[in-house]
Design a protein that fits this description.
With 240 residues, the protein is of the alpha+beta class. It folds into two domains: 87 residues, Orthogonal Bundle (Butyryl-Coa Dehydrogenase, subunit A, domain 1), CATH 1.10.540; 120 residues, Butyryl-CoA Dehydrogenase, subunit A, domain 2 (Beta Barrel), CATH 2.40.110.10. 30% of the residues lie in helices and 28% in strands. The chain contains seven helices and eight strands; from the N terminus they run ααααααβββββββαβ. Strands 2, 3, 6, 7 and 8 form a five-stranded antiparallel sheet that branches. Strands 1-4-5 form a three-stranded mixed sheet, with no helix packed on it. Helix 1 runs antiparallel to helix 3 and helix 1 packs parallel to helix 4. The protein is globular, with a radius of gyration of 19 Å. The site of flavin-adenine dinucleotide has 11 residues, from strand 1 and strand 3.
């Protein structure tokens, strides 16, 4: 079996290495000292990554992304990972689940993330439910066409800089081959929505400039979209 990277992959590795050397390494000391990636610097890195085609490299080309396959993405991640975690994260790789956006969600969430105009974060883990995702207690209950969300998430990376959260919450039960199980639904909730608070998370020993957060949902109302529920509620999206 030939494990040699293809010519295209070699070019990708080369350009990612150059990007890390020229656009990320020079700012590591500042991030170490300040514990943050300043807003202007963030924008500068996003702009440069868009210019050289490294931004949203995981997203399909027909959506405006780089269209890299999984192996090439690993190679890119490995190269970017040579830099500080906070800086390399700025070269956005939007959550793949955003491809499930439908209708107006695509213009409101998916495409802005691919264009570097918005940033997402993804919230699954809870103080009482880490590896065992189905035991989550955050719940979203139907109220007419809306959902009311209550619960707490923690360890949520980059929620401080994200524009919205992809939130996983229990919405009832479903039959599975192993019997009834909690049904988990993904919601799109904008930062600033009433009843949704983002608090500072835990200090990291390393990874300066990277922050994780605690998210509190206290009767947070999100409106269901007709289209989101047409295909069943397992991947339904809602907008806050
Ligand atoms: C830096 C950082 C960033 C994170 N970012 C995010 C994020 O953005 N969004 C998000 O949703 N979550 C995030 N997480 C949370 C992460 O996904 C959880 O930490 C992970 O799912 C494990 O959950 P836990 O920490 O509660 O550990 P636990 O589930 O309590 O597990 C503790 C230990 O027990 C072991 N264990 C658990 N269950 C079993 C079992 N059945 N059999 C054998 N061993 C088991 C585990 O392997 C682990 O070693 C982040 C975590 C960290 C540390």
């Amino acid at each position: 079996m030939n494990f040699e990277p293809s010519e295209e992959q070699k070019l990708l590795i080369e350009s990612a290495r150059r990007f890390v050397r020229e656009e990320l390494y020079p700012h590591e000391e500042e991030v170490e000292k300040t514990g943050a990636v300043h807003r202007d610097l963030r924008q500068q890195i996003i702009d440069r990554a868009l210019e050289v085609g490294l931004y949203a490299a995981n997203m399909p080309q027909d959506l405006g992304g780089g269209g890299l396959d999984s192996l090439s993405m690993c190679m890119l991640d490995r190269e970017l990972g040579r830099a500080s975690y906070a800086l390399q994260y700025t070269v956005g790789r939007p959550s793949n689940i955003l491809q499930a956006c439908v209708g107006e969600q695509r213009e409101r969430y998916l495409f802005p993330c691919i264009r570097g105009e918005k940033t997402d974060c993804l919230a699954m883990t809870e103080p009482g439910a880490g590896s065992d995702v189905r035991s989550m207690s955050t719940r979203a209950e139907r109220d007419g066409r809306d959902f009311i969300i209550n619960g707490t998430k923690h360890f949520i990376s980059h929620a401080d800089i994200a524009d919205f959260v992809i939130l996983f919450a229990a919405t009832g039960f479903e039959e599975t081959p192993r019997g009834p199980r909690k049904r988990i639904t993904a919601f799109l909730v904008d930062k600033g929505s009433r009843g949704f608070e983002v608090r500072d998370g835990y200090q990291s020993v390393s990874n300066r400039g990277y922050h994780n957060c605690i998210l509190e949902f206290d009767n947070c109302r999100v409106s269901g979209l007709d289209v989101g529920f047409a295909a069943g509620e397992d991947l339904a999206g809602c907008t806050g």
